[in-house]
Specification:
This protein is mainly α. It is about 70% helix and about 0% strand. The longest helix has about 45 residues. The two termini are about 30 Å apart. The relative contact order is 0.07.
Amino acid sequence: MPQEGPGEGPGESPGESPRESPRESPQARRHSNWFGQFASRTARLAGSPAAFAAACIIVVVWAISGPFLGFSEVWQLTINTGTTIITFLMVFIIQNTQNRDAQAMQIKLDELIRATRNAQNSLLDLEELSEQELDAFRDHYERLAEKARRSGKPLTGQLAKAER
């Protein structure tokens, strides 16, 4: 398959890359992606040691207050409701950040495949294929791996050579 030069992908003219095409102004991008920015900041904050410490302190204070409140239903509902609401909301925030991270990683991998000489451009956008099509690709690469193993070259020798 012919290799396209940098910036010469489908629908691109030479010298133009997706990063350079003025689809949206930075201000419009910032405004339209407010949830993405909010989700990133929230996920980063929620995963911090300070957030973990705060959650631990809240649980300890709640547990200590139990005897003073007679271990009442309100006391129990407070922690149950609070944790349920936070968990429910965090599912969407974490999913959003993971979706964007996965998309960014896929774009980077696609670019590496596209830019690597002798790479198979048919591997671009594999995530869009059906299960059967993915199975066919996997079977193909499993056969290649098996053939490489049967070639008689020890794997440790191949790894040592690759590290040089």
